[in-house]
């Protein structure tokens, strides 16, 4: 009986280890991915070529035509702030659990949340942040004019996911804009003028 009991314990430990391995595989990490230096060196010199269509993708920045590389970078430089200033007064902490506990059974649209649960900008401004890497669209246009459709779609895809570059550590949602609220941003350094309105 003692031997079979230890066998059962070993089987349970094996099953528990398999469960943790499955949990590790299912884990999702958002933006903190770093490539080792050896793999980044290999990726810069690597290239992909297709015999069927004659398409080739270069891996190093030095192989790209200088006219393509300069697309979207010849605008005047404008110095902008990197982060918002610290608040003058510190807010009193409120427990999210106590808010949930006090509002059980209530209509959630009527529950007032503290202001500091929101990011200090409007969702209209948040929409403008997606244009941060707009030069990728300019490069995609240039590649398309030259007939390289693969590099065009790569730059468009890079622009599509570039909106997630600033989401690391930003867990608060922006304020909802009021009806008729507008936001206008002029970025001569990036070559675009952004206007949005809540309708």
Automatic annotation (TrEMBL):
It comes from Trifolium medium. GO terms for molecular function: sterol binding. The lineage of its organism: Eukaryota, Viridiplantae, Streptophyta, Embryophyta, Tracheophyta. This is Oxysterol-binding protein 1C-like. It comes from the Eukaryota. Residues 1-26 are annotated as: Disordered. InterPro entries: OSBP_sf, Oxysterol-bd. PANTHER family: OSBP(OXYSTEROL-BINDING PROTEIN)-RELATED PROTEIN 1C (PTHR10972:SF163), OXYSTEROL-BINDING PROTEIN-RELATED (PTHR10972). Signal peptide: none annotated. GO terms for cellular component: cytosol; membrane. Pfam families: Oxysterol_BP (PF01237).
């Amino acid at each position: 009986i003692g031997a079979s009991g230890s066998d059962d314990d070993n089987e349970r430990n094996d099953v528990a280890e398999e469960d943790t391995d499955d949990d590790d595989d299912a884990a999702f990490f958002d933006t903190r991915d770093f490539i080792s230096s050896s793999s980044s060196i290999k990726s810069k010199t690597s290239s992909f070529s297709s015999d069927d269509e004659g398409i080739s993708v270069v891996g190093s920045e030095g192989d790209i035509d200088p006219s393509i590389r300069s697309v979207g970078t010849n605008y005047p430089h404008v110095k902008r702030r990197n982060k918002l200033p610290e608040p003058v007064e510190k807010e009193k902490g409120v427990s999210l659990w106590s808010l949930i506990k006090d509002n059980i059974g209530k209509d959630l649209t009527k529950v007032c949340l503290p202001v500091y649960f929101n990011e200090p900008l409007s969702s209209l401004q948040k929409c403008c942040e997606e244009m941060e890497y707009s030069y990728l669209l300019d490069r995609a246009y240039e590649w398309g004019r030259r007939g390289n459709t693969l590099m065009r779609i790569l730059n468009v895809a890079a622009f599509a996911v570039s909106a997630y570059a600033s989401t690391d550590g930003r867990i608060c949602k922006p304020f909802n804009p009021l009806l008729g609220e507008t936001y206008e941003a002029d970025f001569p350094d990036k070559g675009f003028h952004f206007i949005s309105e809540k309708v």
